[in-house]
Amino acid sequence: MTGRRVITGLVLGLLLVSGCTAQSGSENSAAQVARPEAGAGQSAPKQQAPAEPGKAPGVAVGQVDRKLARSATLSVKAGDVSGAVTRARQAATTAGGYAGTERTETRSATVTLVVPAERLDAVLGELSALGEVTRREQQVEDVTEQVVDVDTRLASQRASVTRVRALLERATSISEITSIERELTTREAELESLQARQKALAGSVAMSTITLNVAAGAVAAEDDDRGFLGGLAAGWRAFLDFGSGALTVLGAVAPFLVLVAIPVAVWWVRRRRKVAPAAAAE
């Protein structure tokens, strides 16, 4: 009896040991199978394309064509204001542009010149030779975004007008025709406005505006006024300046002299009349 129990215990022990070994093996196998599957499920890191030589990573290869509207303001002093304005107009015409608004006064003038954008610097150089430059400014406005926006909206509006016209051709009733024509008129007006805006932007990019201010002023002589002739010229100028100043003072005092001279003349005439009878009586 005791021997049977011992044998039964040994058999049960062997069965338990073999079951634990089998379970451990199956778990290891499952882990080995799951590990490749997990590795396969993970996405491989993306490889970035090698950047071109001389190009920064992340920067588009094609360069954006910038649309720039350029303008300038130039102020000069010239001995002959009218002649300077005439030469400025000729310079603009020769460059392929034209002269716009002009305002001329006694000792100054302002004229607006419109020239091709690629000729702006050359024309400014010619205008700077008209006299002494006192002010020179250039303004640049980047209108690239405006141009792109208008072009996009223009394409969309053209497609919209085309669709409405197609609907108008298929309309059968008077009410449909009236409603579609009203909508077509509105969209065509918007299309014309966008076209005008596109034309204005293109003009501001293609042509540049120069505002030229010319003021009367003596241009500095290239040669020094030295020597006998220089001294003679300086003396003559001083004499003219003195004569001009004296005449200016005389013109300013003349009205007051007239007012004083009238009472003096009346007093003198009366005194002469009184003196004459006294002299006759003696």
Automatic annotation (TrEMBL):
The keyword Transmembrane applies. Pfam families: DUF4349. The keyword Membrane applies. The chain crosses the membrane at residues 247-269. Keywords: Membrane, Signal, Transmembrane, Transmembrane helix. Residues 28-58 are annotated as: Disordered. Residues 1-22 form the signal peptide. InterPro entries: DUF4349. This is DUF4349 domain-containing protein. It comes from Amycolatopsis suaedae.
